[in-house]
Specification:
It contains 10 helices and 9 strands. By secondary structure, it is of the alpha+beta class. The protein folds into 2 domains: 142 residues, Regulatory protein AraC (Jelly Rolls); 107 residues, Arc Repressor Mutant, subunit A, CATH 1.10.10. The strands form 2 sheets. Strands 1-8-3-6-9 form a 5-stranded antiparallel β-sheet, with helices on one face. It is elongated, with a radius of gyration of 24 Å. The mean pLDDT is 90.
Length: 266
């Protein structure tokens, strides 16, 4: 199955250094047109945003990527409701009309921690106002736009998906290379068959194949960076049987661990 499409831009220019803004109560914002795109993200409060003919609920981590010619009216109905937002003005440095034809309006961010880290990084860089900080900010903004673009194209994750993503992070860190597929499935309260389907939907790979590949990749790193014996190394990546480890390594890498260390890793 084909994954999300590439972000339609690879270069952009900041028109104004980004900022976090705490709005007065009650909040009201009206803009008929701009000479830039505005990435606007609510970080605190509840309100509404009228974009053209449609009105959207605004809650913490609601995203709007507003094109230049769209009329906007944001407002809060509660006179005591404080709205805090992050905003950054930018222009693509290559032809692109995707965000005009299909603007991102009212998207609820799922990867909040990653987005928040990028936003804070961009905001901190704005203090320096030199060519390097501008370049870094533009790179970080591209990352933030890519994160949003991926989420918009990807169906909402289930609670099981989120648990499996956490398992994948642990496996890739080397923490859970020892676990069996049965153990991983039990951890999220699924049968092995159902777990395999959910896992493959995320990684495009069966869980057992994923575990083997992660173990062998970790073994390759250890072959390059340590002088451990093959027996010790096999145990460190989850194999009690060194001969079984060597067979799996050769099947994946088309060479034995010793050949890898002598011919590639050193």
């Amino acid at each position: 199955m084909e994954g999300p499409k590439r972000l339609p831009i690879s270069r952009l220019e900041l028109r104004k250094f980004p900022f976090f803004f705490v709005n007065s109560c009650p909040w009201s914002w009206h803009s008929k047109a701009r000479d830039h795109y505005n990435l606007w993200i609510c970080t605190e409060g509840f309100a509404r945003m009228r974009c053209g003919d449609a009105t959207y609920e605004v809650t913490p981590w609601t995203v709007f990527l507003l094109p230049p010619r769209m009329e906007i009216h944001g407002f809060s109905e509660d006179t005591n409701e404080r709205i805090k937002n992050f905003a950054v003005h930018w222009l693509p440095l290559e032809p692109c009309d995707v965000f005009d034809q299909s603007p991102i309006l009212g998207h609820d961010l799922r990867e909040v921690d990653t987005a928040q880290s990028l936003m804070q990084s961009i905001s901190r860089l704005s203090v320096h106002r030199d060519p390097l900080s501008t370049q870094q900010s533009e790179w970080s903004l591209l990352q933030l736009l890519s994160l949003i673009w991926r989420e918009v194209q990807t169906p909402n994750e289930s609670s099981v998906d989120r648990l499996i993503y956490r398992q994948i992070e642990r496996i890739r860190s080397g923490e859970d290379l020892f676990l069996s597929v049965e153990s991983l499935a039990a951890e999220v309260h699924l049968s092995r068959i159902h777990y395999g389907r959910c896992f493959k939907k995320i990684t495009k790979e069966a869980p057992n194949q994923f575990l083997i590949r992660q173990r062998i990749e970790r073994a390759c790193m250890l072959l390059r960076e340590t002088d451990w014996t093959i027996e010790v190394l096999a145990e460190r990546v989850g194999y009690k049987d060194v001969f079984f480890f060597c067979r799996q390594f050769k099947r994946v890498m088309q060479m034995t661990p010793r050949q890898y260390r002598q011919g590639v890793g050193r």
